[in-house]
Structure formats: structure tokens, C-alpha cells
Amino acid sequence: MEQIGASRCFGGSQQRFRHHSAVLNCAMTFSVYLPPQAEQAAVPVLTWLSGLTCTDENFVAKSGAQRYAAEYGMALLVPDTSPRGEGVPGDPAGGWDFGLGAGFYVNATQAPWSDHYRMYDYVCDELPALVGENPALDMTRQSISGHSMGGHGALTVALKNPGRFRSVSAFSPICAPSECPWGHKALGNYLGMDRARWAEHDASLLLAKAQERLPILIDQGAADPFLDEQLKPELLRTAARAARYPIQLRIQPGYDHSYFFVSSFIGEHLAFHAEHLRD
User: Is 257 a catalytic residue?
Assistant: First the structure.
């Protein structure tokens, strides 16, 4: 693992690393924010999963989350959104909603994607094991959050890994990828056309068989241009009611899909996670 960047930030350190991923079969970058408290004792970890077209840098540069992470003594772990590099296939049609920058946090089973696109295993296993070697990180206290495609990733990863996380939150998540064009394209290409496999990565369907009741906070902008066609939070709300799974789903008037929205409420999300990450 090679450190390729470090900057002082709110008394802590914003760092960036490159490493070879055996799971993804390529070089990967990720970012970590260590709050000032990490100099004295191990701190809990919030993993952030970013959305379509993003890298590990969008969140750390645009969200303003470090201010709150420093206040609450919380590390931020931010992976990239897909495998990268020579030989990693993108969208054959040149689209931005599939392939490079759009790994959807699943393990692809279909060629040619299956050689590299195993973001589920990367986020759940390889990256936590790698950063867990740092004694400043308390991997027994983890929460997870994300935006858009990353909100989908945060919800599904948390629901599929009972006992791993203390809490989960999301901004503008793709709530039902089995029922929207982004999801049809990504899941159809990565996993094939067996919709039973899609259901394994659909938060609105996973709620019905959830083994625990994690605290869930979701914020969705009412002026989001993707709200009705792609995100479909009403399907998640309906599924939660049917499963008697308590969630906080807040519709925020006037807000869109951008990082202006994320930065407006990121402090509340980190406060939410801080409450559940206490010893």
C-alpha cells in the first residue's frame, strides 16, 4: 500500500492511498480521514460509498464531512466506485451509468465484467482487512453511508451483513434497482437476466428478510431530477412498512441530487452515526 497524498484538515489528516487489489485484479485508490482523536486512541469508522461517475475524491473534497468527523472522533473510509485501469472494460456504448465509475457494489458473474467488477467483496472484505491493519481504526465499531448508487450500496451491504455495522444512512439512494433503468442496465449486465440474483442487491426486497433492525436514516431531495424514474424511495417506504422495519426517510423540499444537498445534511448524518458508534 502506497500513500499518495496527505493534508492537514480540521486537526486531523486527510490521506489517500494506492494498492493492488487481488479481488478486483487492478490498482485501486481509496481515501481515509483520520480525526485528531486518532492520535490518542483507536476511533470508529464510517465507510462512505459514492455515486455514479465519482471516485474516492468527490466526497472528501465536496461534502465538508471532515469538520464533523473531527468533532465526533470518527474516521472516514472512502473507496473508489469501480475497478480502473488498462484491461478493465467500461460501457461498450460509452455511457456514464455503467462500467467505469459505476460498479454498483455487486460481484459481477457475467463476462467480461466478472474478471474485475467485484466491488461487493472489495468493500465488504478486502478493503476493511487492509485498513484494519492500522491500529488507529477500531473496526469493531463501523457504520456505513453513501449517495445515489452509493446509497444503494450502503443499504444493501448493511442489510446483507448483520452484525457488521452499528447504523446505516443514505442520500438519494437507488432504493429499488430491480425497478429502474439504472438498475436494469447494471444488474442485467453484471449479474445476467435472472431477477432472483437482482433481488439479492435490492434494498426494497432485502428488508423483508433482514435479520436485524439497524438504525436507518435516509434523506431525499424533493427536487431531485432522478427521483421518480431512478430512485423510487416510495418503494422502500412501502417495503419497510410491510416488514415492520423502522426507518427514517426524510423528503427535503427544494433539494436536488448534488453535493450541495449532501453537504447541507452531512452533519446530521454524522451525528446520527456518532450516537450509534459510542462504546
Answer: yes
Q: State mean pLDDT over 214-230.
A: 98
pLDDT in tens, 56-104: 999 999 999 999 999 999 999 999 999 999 999 999 999 999 999 999 9
Assign residue 267 the CATH number of its domain: 3.40.50.1820
Instruction: State the residue range of the domain holding 70.
Output: 2-276
Provide the terminal-to-terminal Cα distance of the chain, rounded to the nearest Å. Answer: 30
Q: What is the mean pLDDT of the chain?
A: 97
Please provide residue 14's backbone torsions phi and psi, each rounded to the nearest 5 degrees.
-95, 115
| CB-neighbour burial class of residue 8 (10 A; exposed 0-12, middle 13-18, buried 19+) | exposed
Contacts of 196 (CB under 8 A, 6+ apart): none
Residue 279 predicted with pLDDT over 90: no
**Annotated catalytic residue: which of 21, 82, 143, 148?**
148
DSSP 248-270: EEEEETT--SSHHHHHHHHHHHH
Domains of the chain: total: 1
Checking 8-16 for CB contacts under 8 A at 24+ apart, the result is: 9/33, 9/66, 9/70, 10/35, 10/36, 10/66, 10/67, 10/69, 10/70, 11/35, 11/36, 11/70, 12/36, 12/38, 12/66, 12/69, 12/70, 14/60, 14/66, 16/56, 16/57
Query: Within 78-180, where are the H helices?
Result: 119-121, 127-131, 149-160
Map residue 190 onto helix, strand or coil: helix
What does the pLDDT average to over 225-240?
A: 98
pTM of the predicted model, to two decimals? 0.97
- 201, 257, 269, 273: the catalytic one is 257
Residue 269 has pLDDT above 90, yes or no: yes
From 21, 224, 269, 273, active-site residue: 224
